[in-house]
Structure formats: C-alpha cells, structure tokens
Write the structure tokens for this entry.
Amino acid sequence: MNITFILKDGTKKIVAFEGGQTMLQVAEENGIKLNSNCEGFGVCGGCHVKIENLLDKLPEVSEKENDTLDRVSGVSMDSRLACQIVLNSNLNGLIVKLI
Ligand code: FES
C-alpha cells in the first residue's frame, strides 16, 4: 500500500505504509519532515496536512483533533493532523499535501 506526500516545493514522494501506522510515522520513517512538536499526541498542530483525495475514507475527526485544528492557522475542510490518522487498506493511494 502506498501514500503520496506532496512536499512544500511541490515534489511528490510516494512511500509504502502498513496498516496500523499513523500518517506521521510513515512520513518520519521516509525522511519527510512535519513540524511535529508533541510526539504525535495531537496537541501541537504542527503535523497539519491537507488531504487531496479519499477524504470520505478517513477516520472521523476526534474531539481532540478538532480542538487542535481550531488553534491552527490556514485550516480548511480538507485539513487533518497526520499524527491522528491511522492508515488502513482503504487509504491505499492517499494523497497528502504538506503545508
Ligand atoms: S504531532 Fe503534534 S498534533 Fe500531530
């Protein structure tokens, strides 16, 4: 299964993931830097990303994720926190944009 990260310079990086990994873990394992400052606890907002496809297949936004996104600038309907998304086979082919 794979996920495509669109980096800040527009470069696309396609990387493999296994079910159960978070999007943040997959990014970090592949040298893709997100501004995560809370070690994936969903409170810093630094792993804010925009989801380009499969939005309806993502797990629901939790109250904690929602609260954190409320404090992040530039949030839109396609905004999520990479540390809060646990990947599964439904998300194969996901495209995510770093901001
Ligand atoms: S790493 Fe801090 S909110 Fe995701």
User: Anything to note?
Assistant: Strands lie at 2-6, 12-16, 48-51, 79-81, 94-98. The helical segments are 23-29, 63-70. The longest helix spans residues 63-70. The first strand starts at residue 2 and ends at 6.
